[in-house]
Structures are given as C-alpha cells and as structure tokens.
Amino acid sequence: MTWEHLERGSSPVDWCEGNYLVSPDIAEFVNTISNILFLLGPPFLIYLFKDYGRFIQPAIHLIWVLLIVVGLSSAYFHATLSLLGQLLDELTILWVFMATLSLFCPRRHFPRIFKRSRKRFCLSMTIFSIVATGLSFCHPAINAFALMFLAIPATYLLYKELKIVQDERVYRLGVRNTTILIMAIVCWINDRMFCDTWSRMNFPYLHGFWHILIFISAYPACVLFAYFFVNDERPESRPTLKYWPRNDFELGIPYVSINYDKKFDDAI
C-alpha cells in the first residue's frame, strides 16, 4: 500500500452524492454522517447482551465492536474517497459477516466435511476471509458488487431457520429484517446504477439511506442468529427474544434474554 492510496479521491469508487458540497473537509457529507447508527447502536447492544455474553458466548461482543469498526471505516471512506478508506470499509463488512457466520451458524447447516465441528468451520471461514481479503486488492472497483452476494447465503440460512422456528415473534422479526434488507439493496442499486436519474430529481442520497437501512437490517440479523445458536446448542438456557424499551413494542431494539439459573449466577 503506497502513500498515494491514502490520498483523497484515490478510490475508483465515487457514489452519487456530489463531493465537497457541504464541507471542504468531507467529500460526501450525507454518506459520511449516515453511519451514525453504527456508532451509537452497538454500545447499547453490548449492554443488552451482557447476560448472553456472560453465560452463552462472550464473542457476541466482538460482533458489536466490529459493527462500530464498520461505521468508522465507512465514514472515513466517504469523507475522503481514498482507496485505503474503501478497502477498510469493504473488508470490515466481510469480516463482520464471516465472524457472525462462524460463531453463530447452527451446526446442522455445516457442510458434511466439517463433521459438525465448529472449530473446523471457523478455521475454514478464517482462511476464506484471508484469501478474500487478498483478492480485494486486485480489482477494488468490483469489491462492493462481490460483497452484495453475501446476502444470498445469509438470507438462505435465515429462511431455513424461520421455517422451523416456533416463536412467532422471532418469525416476525425475520420477515421484517428481510424486508428491510431488500429495501436497503434497492437503495444501493439505484444509487450505483441510476445516479443520473436521481441527480435530475435532486436526490442523490440513496447511499445514505442504504447505510441507515443496512444497519437496521444487520443488527437484528445478528440477534436472530444469536438466538438460533443458543436455541440449538444451549436450549436449557430458554432463550427469549425481547425488545427494549418495552417488550410489547416489537419495533423497539431486539435482544436475546437468557433465563439462567439464579443459583448458578450466585455461585459465579
């Protein structure tokens, strides 16, 4: 990586929003500030998942931290349009996806070659991520399109789990999550492929809406797979999908509640 890749505008990717129209220091102002949810949401999710992290899987907090890194990387990219910023943005998305898949994919979906071993599955996903990271430097202009294909296996796995889930609240969250994901992808495609049309309508900000919608879709997806994981491997913990601030308000912030044994808690 040479110094020229740190320079503003060195990325081959430039989104629809006009550059330096609001601030002389920020290339794409709306696309930069629209990452705010990635910075504000995860710290609260760390709090809501404190029992999950303590009793089930401490690595859940790694996912929330990686989402913060995604937001910071995306903001840096859109503020500078540098190649380094682009690669950081794309690679953090790749790694948060692979980390979630490795840690929380139910074992019954593992290919037979892994013999239901999560250690083998995690190792293979790590190797795949390293190879994909190296390939991302070859043709940076196509990286974003390649990342969009990650939605296919994620949606397929979610579909398979929703077919057998018995909790109606979990099912409804899965349906809402998929709907929002589709809306986010529509915004991404329109901004990337039909910029001239939206510019003539004086609304070149669909990529900013992508940031907002993809976060609203991404974190519930992580919540759902965290639920599937504990329901599959630790059913005695009796996981329950709940919402903050009110459990009867399903448009609130979802999280997984663990009904742990109080005696066990006191012993710790």
UniProtKB/TrEMBL annotation:
It is a multi-pass membrane protein. Hydrolyzes the sphingolipid ceramide into sphingosine and free fatty acid. Ca(2+) binds at D14, W15, E17, N19, E28. This is Alkaline ceramidase. Belongs to the alkaline ceramidase family. Zn(2+) binds at H78, H207, H211. GO terms for biological process: ceramide catabolic process. The keyword Transmembrane helix applies. PANTHER family: ALKALINE CERAMIDASE. Its cofactor is Zn(2+). Keywords: Calcium, Hydrolase, Lipid metabolism, Membrane, Metal-binding, Transmembrane, Transmembrane helix, Zinc. One of its GO terms (molecular function) is metal ion binding. GO terms for cellular component: membrane. InterPro entries: ACER. Its EC number is 3.5.1.-. Signal peptide: none annotated. It is found in: Membrane. The lineage of its organism: Eukaryota, Metazoa, Ecdysozoa, Arthropoda, Hexapoda.
